[in-house]
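task queued by scheduler; priority normal; single chain, no ligands, no partner chains; default sampling; output format set to structure tokens
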Amino acid sequence: SPAQRRQPSAASYDKAMKHFLLAAAALTMSLGASAAGLGDIKTVYLLPMSNGLDQYLAQQLTAEAVLQVVTDPQKADAVLTDHLGETFEQSLADLYQTKPQAGDKDKADDATEDKGAARARSGMQGRRGRGTIFLVNRRTHEVLWSVYELPKDNRPAGLRHSAGRISAQLAKSIKGK
């Protein structure tokens, strides 16, 4: 009967609360660590994006002082891209390969390095983006932040509008609001 239904004991209630508090503390710490990683990013290198979205993003990020956009990938804390996977990893490897000491390289090495840089710059040009933008830590390759913002069309006004929304959302995430 309902009157005979067992009520949880105080001990089981305390145990459940301890588990809940531990889970909440772990979640809070993981969110804090993630936010701290994003807050450490000051400079960003933009890989080429479909329809030239990277150019609009560079303008918005600098105009709104969200992040400093750099043209030298070696000076970047993070990379903004519209794709992940094998081609992205290859782009990072090409951009951030260790450079040999001066005098140790021959012309063949220089040619290989130039081809790698050109491949990294080519990115996904000509291929349709899927609307997700990723901010990736260049050293750890961890995705620090992402957003889905598919431009309504490929005209400058649509791309500028999407870049503005992406920049505003990134700024909001960096500030932690």
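post-processing summary
- The helical segments are 10-39, 53-63, 86-95, 107-122, 156-175.
- The first strand starts at residue 43 and ends at 46.
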